[in-house]
């Protein structure tokens, strides 16, 4: 069974940093792309970033370029999202997701975690 568990969310002041983790299990981690999405209240889900396992290529939404960094630790089956210079508009529930065909970027993924709340105060 594919499982994705996010952690690392919380409350931070504008300009601060958080690092989200996505711990994966139940599948061959090296074969999948992992993506991060977010959804704020009343807004559509937004793709934030993703990483391909085959070549390590990454994607970032324009809204987070230069501030967020995605990385993968294959030994730990974990993908991280380092978020710096956080803004109030980054406030959302952040989800990680997995694609068994290693596609990055992708509009939607097959497998999803439960999400972790990130709140940035002004």
3D structure, described in words:
The protein is mainly beta and 122 residues long. It is built from no helices and eleven strands. It has strands at residues 3-7, 10-13, 18-25, 33-39, 46-51, 58-60, 68-73, 78-83, 92-99, 111-112, 116-121. The strands form two sheets. Strands 2, 4, 5, 6, 9, 10 and 11 form a seven-stranded mixed sheet that branches. A hairpin with a 6-residue loop joins strand 4 and strand 5 (46-51). It is globular and about 40 Å long. The N and C termini lie far apart (40 Å). 34% of the residues are buried. The mean pLDDT is 95.
Topology of this structure?
Elements (H helix, E strand, L loop, with lengths): L2 E5 L2 E4 L4 E8 L7 E7 L6 E6 L6 E3 L7 E6 L4 E6 L8 E8 L11 E2 L3 E6 L1
Parallel strand pairs: 2-11
Antiparallel strand pairs: 1-3, 3-8, 4-5, 4-9, 5-6, 7-8, 9-10, 9-11
Shape: globular
Measured between the Cα atoms of the first and last residue, the distance is: 40 Å
Classify the secondary structure makeup into a structural class: mainly beta
H and E string: EEEEEEEEEEE
The average pLDDT score comes to: 95
Radius of gyration from the alpha-carbon trace, in angstroms = 13 Å
Main sheet attributes: strand count, strand direction, barrel closure: 7 strands, mixed
Beta-strand percent range: over 45%
Strands, count: 11
List low-pLDDT spans: none
Our count of helices gives: 0
Share in helix: under 10%
């Amino acid at each position: 069974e594919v499982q994705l568990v996010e952690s690392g969310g919380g409350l931070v002041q504008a300009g601060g940093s958080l690092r989200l983790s996505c711990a994966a299990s139940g599948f061959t981690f090296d074969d999948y792309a992992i993506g991060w999405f977010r959804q704020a209240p009343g807004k559509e889900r937004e793709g934030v970033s993703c990483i391909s396992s085959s070549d390590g290529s990454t994607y970032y939404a324009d809204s987070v370029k230069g501030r967020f960094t995605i990385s993968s630790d294959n030994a730990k089956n974990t993908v991280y999202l380092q978020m710096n210079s956080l803004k109030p508009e980054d406030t959302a529930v952040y989800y990680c997701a997995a694609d068994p065909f290693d596609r990055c970027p992708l509009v939607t993924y097959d497998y999803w975690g439960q999400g972790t709340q990130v709140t940035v105060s002004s």
